[in-house]
Amino acid sequence: MARTVVISGGGTGIGYAIAERMAADGDHIILIGRRENVLAQAAAALGDQTSYVAADLTETQGAEHVASHIADRDATVDVIIANAGGNIALQAPEPRPEGLAGVSRLWTENLRLNVMTAVHLVEGLKPHLADNGRILLFSSIAAYRGSGSGSYAASKAALHPYAIDLSAELAPRGITANVIAPGYIQDTEFFGEGISPQRRTWNIDLTHTKHPGTPADIAALAHWLAAPEAGNVTAQIIQSNGGAVVGR
């Protein structure tokens, strides 16, 4: 039976790869993101079973807009994939305050980008979540290894206890909540204008497999965690990084 799968950050990269994998099963996909043109192109490529909602999930109004879309369709949600996020320090440069004000801004923006986008989406869709549903949150290897400034790593690590609490709350309804923590994944927009060859080599050299991860790798993992067969897997943080978390 076809399910309804909501994917934030679904227009590109990992989110799009997951949407593609789920759509192949005949599931109805609802893509969420801030850029309507990107979502429209992705939905067209995925086929008639895919729709989209342009919404900024850093704000509660964005999640309310998504929930209204679900309610208007008189639908339930079977899978929530809260993939939207990023590191504000790697996005398009803009003037930022110096000193403490700059540090505060970096932390606040990364928490909004990575924690609140997930919390707003999940909490907004809880009333529409079907029994035996699935919730997937997205962390990072940075939650284990750090991220330089601390803010990005901390924002990703915050999702770990959130998933555990969601699992405890929703398990009586057969709903699971898990976290995927990828390492370096090539062919995404995470590094903004692009990763330097030196940084790419460094990331790959940390792995045991000696090759980068791909969006398809994460999509395969997400597809399994969202499947009925994974009903006994919940409150877990599952890493996919080629061994990079432990270094060389």
Could you provide a short overview of the structure?
The chain is an alpha/beta fold.
Describe this structure in words.
With about 250 residues, the chain is α/β, with parallel strands linked by helices. The protein has a single domain (about 5-245), classed as Rossmann fold. It has helices at about 15-25, 35-45, 60-70, 100-125, 140-145, 150-155, 160-170, 195-205, 215-225; strands at about 5-10, 30-35, 50-55, 75-80, 130-140, 175-180, 235-240. It has a seven-stranded parallel β-sheet with strand order 3-2-1-4-5-6-7, with helices on both faces. Helix 4 packs parallel to helix 6 (about 150-155). The model has no long low-confidence stretch (mean pLDDT about 95).
Throw out a few tags for this protein.
9 helices; 248 residues; alpha/beta; 7 strands; 17% strand; globular; Rossmann fold
For the largest sheet, list the strands in their spatial order: 3-2-1-4-5-6-7
CATH superfamily: NAD(P)-binding Rossmann-like Domain
Major β-sheet profile: 7 strands, parallel
Note the total helix count.
9
- Give helix and strand order, one letter per element, not per position: EHEHEHEHEHHHEHHE
N-end to C-end Cα span: 44 Å
- Poorly predicted sequence stretches spanning 5 or more consecutive residues: none
What oligomeric state do these chains adopt?
single chain
* Beta-strand proportion: 15-25%
CATH topology assignment: Rossmann fold
Q: How many individual domains?
A: 1
| Approximate helicity band | 40-55%
CATH architecture classification? 3-Layer(aba) Sandwich
The overall strand count is 7
Rg calculated over all Cα atoms = 17 Å
Structural class: alpha/beta
| CATH structural class | Alpha Beta
Q: Mean of the pLDDT scores?
A: 94
Global shape: globular
